Amino acid sequence: MWGRRAGALLRVRGLWPAGVLGRRPLSCSAASLAGNSSPQCWNCGGPGSHMRGDGFFCPQCHALQPPDPTRDYFSLLDCNRAFRVDTAKLQTRYQELQRLVHPDFFSQRSQTEKDFSEKHSTLVNDAYKTLLAPLSRGLYLLKLHGVEIPEGTDYEMDRQFLMEIMEINEKLAEAQSEAAMKEIESIVRA
């Protein structure tokens, strides 16, 4: 009973991939459609040029594809790559993705798809946890920009400093005028 109700609700909201039990694809922005970079579908051998759409499923055979190891957490969760994120939007996207790739929905599928589902679900969980907390989000942003924080760093002591640096960098990126740049410079000097 629950399965039919949940399926109907998710079909109405368009949260299931095309062709999987007749459901429509998950809607997401072009930034998060980078998806799978494998040249062919592991199941049907379909050409990579057809690997588009939501990036999780083959459009020909609808088999779940392996996670894209080059995809960052921001594009996966459809967020701007910035320190400030809309946590409500983040949570909504997390829930949409879990409804799409959670292992509970793949119990009747091949072992390969079950394995891919577990990997996708773990990746979505890691991305959500990382981007939800400001400190881990900041550290992840730094990592994306090639700055690694050494193991054993006292994060609590450095947390306020890190937050200030991230906020200043955002203000610099958003500065529209020379006056705004001068204001930021005076804050840094102080």
Quick tags:
190 residues; mainly alpha; Helix Hairpins; Iron-sulfur cluster co-chaperone protein HscB-like
Task: Describe the protein.
- The protein has 190 residues and is an all-alpha fold.
- The chain contains seven helices and no strands.
- Helix content is 51%, strand content 0%.
- Helix 3 (87-101) runs antiparallel to helix 4 and helix 4 (111-132) crosses helix 5 (134-144).
- It has a domain at 2-132: DnaJ domain (Helix Hairpins, Orthogonal Bundle).
- The protein is elongated and about 60 Å long.
- Mean pLDDT is 76; it is low at 1-38 and 49-53.
Provide a compact summary of the structure.
By secondary structure, the chain is mostly helical. It has seven helices and no strands.
Shape: elongated
CATH class division of the domain at 2-132: Mainly Alpha
Q: Which parts are unreliable, with pLDDT below 50 for 5 consecutive residues or more? A: 1-38, 49-53
Which range does the strand content fall in?
under 5%
Helix count from the secondary structure assignment = 7
Provide the fold topology.
Blueprint: H1 2-13, H2 73-76, H3 87-101, H4 111-132, H5 134-144, H6 155-174, H7 178-189
